[in-house]
Amino acid sequence: MSFLNKVVLVTGAGSGIGQAVSLQFAKYTARLSLVDKDEENLKKTGALCQKLIRAKVLTTVAELREEEDIKKAVANTKAEFGRIDIVVNCAGIYRPTSIFDSNLVELFDDVMATNLRSVVFLINCVANDLVETKGNIINITGEMRSLGAFKGIAYQTTIAALEHFTTSIALELAPKGVRVNSISPGVVKTNILDNAGVNSEESEAFWSKASSAPLNKLVKTEDIAEFVTFLASDKARAMTGSTYSIDAGLGLSRHL
């Protein structure tokens, strides 16, 4: 499998799943445009990818809640590479939210802006480019809803919405030769809870509970990255409009 001369734009590339996805595409010689709001981590990912492909890796520091930053990331990519073939949306945040929170709407808007609105706007910006290249889109959603998360109504709502959005645009873009899929990871041990201010004791309890999935393991970022590259490749040319779970069996409880 090779992505030689394919231009891949990855959001949330500075850490976690986004970093693993970036490295996986680098192994397959893709031309990379990496986006993240954390400049230090983004530089680290860019350097690691550059060692693998021995070619320039474009990095753009961007706050995805800001439309101008998204426009900048797209413009930088097109200026550097002249095209966009694949978009992988990995950026996401979690905020503890309860229906009883006095600032619920503020927190809800923050999560929605990052996890959903930014994806909608980015794809709106690159849709014509992807039609031109017959490219594809992969959205990373999540399976934390199977555990109820920590007061996670905002996060869980964005997951459901993003999966429906994936299906909706897949239907519209399929006749134009563009595929759209999403991946629903199991609980992947990243820095998402730390970034949300969840204390270490609660975090460890959460990871412990997650590891009790039927396969008795946590999903690794590399597991997600390997499937992303498969979905983005010609081997998945007949696959569009679906959400694929990689969750060590965690979601099976929904079917019992």
Notes on the structure:
The chain has helices at residues 16-27, 39-53, 67-81, 104-133, 153-173, 192-195, 200-210, 221-232, and strands at residues 7-11, 31-36, 58-61, 86-89, 136-140, 179-185, 243-246. It is of the alpha/beta class and 256 residues long. It has one domain (7-247): NAD(P)-binding Rossmann-like Domain (Rossmann fold). It has a 7-stranded parallel β-sheet, sandwiched between helices. Strand 4, helix 4 and strand 5 form a beta-alpha-beta unit. Helix 4 packs parallel to helix 5 (153-173). The longest helix is centred in the middle third of the chain and has 30 residues, at 104-133. The chain is globular, with a radius of gyration of 17 Å. The termini are far apart.
Q: Could you list some keywords that capture this structure?
A:
256 residues; alpha/beta; Rossmann fold; seven-stranded parallel sheet; 8 helices; 7 strands
Task: Give the arrangement of secondary structure elements.
Layout: E1 7-11, H1 16-27, E2 31-36, H2 39-53, E3 58-61, H3 67-81, E4 86-89, H4 104-133, E5 136-140, H5 153-173, E6 179-185, H6 192-195, H7 200-210, H8 221-232, E7 243-246
Parallel strand pairs: 1-2, 1-4, 2-3, 4-5, 5-6, 6-7
Helix pairs in contact: 1-2, 1-8, 3-4, 4-5
- Gyration radius over CA: 17 Å
Unreliable stretches, pLDDT < 50, 5 or more residues? none
Tally of DSSP helical segments: 8
Strand-residue proportion: 5-15%
Which percent bin holds the helix content?
Answer: 40-55%
Give the count of structural domains.
1
CATH fold title: Rossmann fold
CATH architecture, please? 3-Layer(aba) Sandwich
Mean pLDDT: 89
The count of DSSP E runs of length 2 or more, i.e. the number of strands, is 7
The CATH class turns out to be Alpha Beta
> Mind describing the biggest β-sheet?
7 strands, parallel
CATH evolutionary superfamily:
NAD(P)-binding Rossmann-like Domain
Rounded to the nearest angstrom, the distance between the terminal CA atoms is 37 Å
User: SSE order, as H and E?
Assistant: EHEHEHEHEHEHHHE
Q: Please tell me what the overall shape is.
A: globular
